[in-house]
Every structure is written in C-alpha cells, then in structure tokens.
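Just wondering, does anyone understand these tokens?
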Amino acid sequence: MKTSNKISIIILSVIGFYAVFLLFSDVEKISNKLINFKIEFLPIILSLVPIAWVLVYLRWYFLLKNLDIRVPHKDNFTIFLASAVLGITPGKVGELLKSQFLKDKFEIPRTKTVPLIFVEKLYDLIGAIIISFLGIWLFPEAGYIITAGLVILIFVFVTISSRKIFNKTARIFMRFQFTKKFVEPIYESSEIIKSSIRGKTAFFSIILSVGYWFIISLAIYFIFLALEIDSLSFLEIISTYIASLILGVLSFLPGGIGVTEGSLVGLLSLQGIEIPTAVVVALLIRLFTLWYSVAVGLLLLKTSGIFSLK
C-alpha cells in the first residue's frame, strides 16, 4: 500500500475517533466554548508553534553537522517539516522516512541518520522532563507520570553507556519483527549515538529541546487564555500536557491518538476543569501541536517536488 494511502487511512480513522469522542460529550457546552474562543489569540498561537519547529530543526542541523553531514538548509528544512506528516504513526517512527528522503536526495547512508532520529526522541524526553519538573510540585498526579518518563530516560542512558548492556538490550528487541527494523540500524551505529549525546552537541541540543517545549507550552497557555481558563498556572499546564504526551507515546498508538486526548481530559478534570471544557482544551491543543504540523508536512509532501510518496 502506498504511504499516501496509509496516511489517508490514518487521518480518516482519527476523524472517526474524534467524531465518537464528541458524540459521547456534551456537544452543546463544547460548541459554546468553541464559539466563545477569543480569536485575537489565534495569530499568537499560530506564530509560536512554527518558532518551536525552527528550534528542533536547528537541533537536527547540529546533529547532522556533528557527523559532518552537510545538507542545504532549504532542502533540509523542507524534508524536516515534511516528515512531520508521519508523526501520526505509532511512536512517530514514521519519521524514519526522513532518513530515506536524505538517502534518495543526497545519498546519505541511512545507517548514519536513523540513529539521529532515536537521539532526537531522547532529547525530546530530556527537554520535556526539564521544562515540566517545577510543575510537578503543583500537580503531583502528573509528577508520577513524568517520573516514569525520567526512569525510562535513565534506563536509556545506562543502556547507551554500557556496550554490554546495549548489545544485550538491542538483541532482545531484535527478536521481534515489529521492532527489529528500527533497532537494527541503531544497533549497528551505537558510536553515532554516543557521539551525539556528548560535548557541545549535547549542550546545544538540550538547550534547543528545552526551548522547543517552552515555546509549545507557551502556545498552549494562550489556548487556555483564549478559552478564558485562568485557574491553572503556566507550570501546572506544562506538567499536565507533558504527562499526557508521555502516556500517549507509551501507548505506541499512531500519534498517541485517544490516549493523549483522554489522559489530558482526565488530568484537567482532576484540577477542577469541567469535562466539556477539558475536551475542548484537549482537542484544540492537539489541533495546534499535532495536526498543524501534519497539515504543513502533507502540503510539503504534495508540493515541494523534492521527494515522492511511495
């Protein structure tokens, strides 16, 4: 099946899920909240999210530069943004096609760039935990989930640091057909991973990752303001959002669909937000943080001309 067809099926399935999600909600209250959305905040939200994209692109650029891989910014940025459409695949593993695009266009071996996508996810987790850490004191329930993310992070670093543990762990995952195709390139390129989490590369990557999550969280804060919700502080919003994302990633569903939205609604309700309002918040957050980038990525895939969907 063509990639474009797979994407279409996933998008249609998600639309169906959201329709059912809304069907079992208080549609009237949800409609009222959406109608009263303060439109003056929309330009701010739509501007902040692309700024966040630029920060993680710069991180990608530095990771490539660390391996002495040079790609023209125009093509590199286009490929980077276009791969966002594959963020709706389980665990965002569809972003591995970013490596395929670089191989097709610039003949860069996938064995060099596939490990970097794993490293990107590692830095995403580091940045998310750092930016949300202060908020867990205000909302302990989210802290438990974020702590689980920290445990995973520690496990990953211990695994990477020890050649023996790394090899044993990789062999375990390579026994399963589903994970083998993702683990195999990483297993063969462990030195690339190690060189990407050291020195200046690690320092700048962590700074850019924290910056990314801060900007995204700021955009989400403005979503709350646009809905006239002022009962939660900025730090509480950050920790709530990060916790729901971690649960979504751990579910390994495409884009964490369902789990991220459901957990976000649940965590918000624990903080006194009415369920209909929490549903609106969750859907708008996903619209601007996930579907905005997916739409841009799909547009670039269709119009850029530097690659084709197969």
User: Anything to note?
Assistant: DSSP finds 14 helices and no strands in the chain.
